[in-house]
Design brief:
The chain is α/β, with parallel strands linked by helices and about 130 residues long. Helices cover about 15% and strands about 30% of the residues. A hairpin with a 3-residue loop joins strand 5 (about 100-105) and strand 6 (about 110-115).
Amino acid sequence: MKSPIMSRVDTIFIHVTNLKESVKWYSTLLGIEFNEDNPCEGPIHTFPMGENRPGLTLDNHCFDEEEYKFNPSNQPLFNLSTEDIDEAYEFVKRMGAEFVTEIARYPDLSDFSFKDPDGNILMICSCITEN
């Protein structure tokens, strides 16, 4: 059966409580310049993640009804990539993030998990591929 739904992901949503502080924190994490003058009032802010890749959208639900209850993601829903897992780990450590896992090393990848300021769990991976 043909589906009207496309097989692609356009954006990944991360739910946050303070959009401006989250934009600032994720800007640091991703090495993207943060404009202090940006009001970041919401409800969303999207980071471009590269051509033909899904965006990363922070959502503070400021226009949702009062019954909205924030619940941080208790497991990583995606991974961010690095070429140097040790350097990435030290960078995240300097940011003061709470680690969920230490670096796990496997034959073809290494990864670790940590929390953003709202408690959402993120993962960073270094995948080894043949050239």
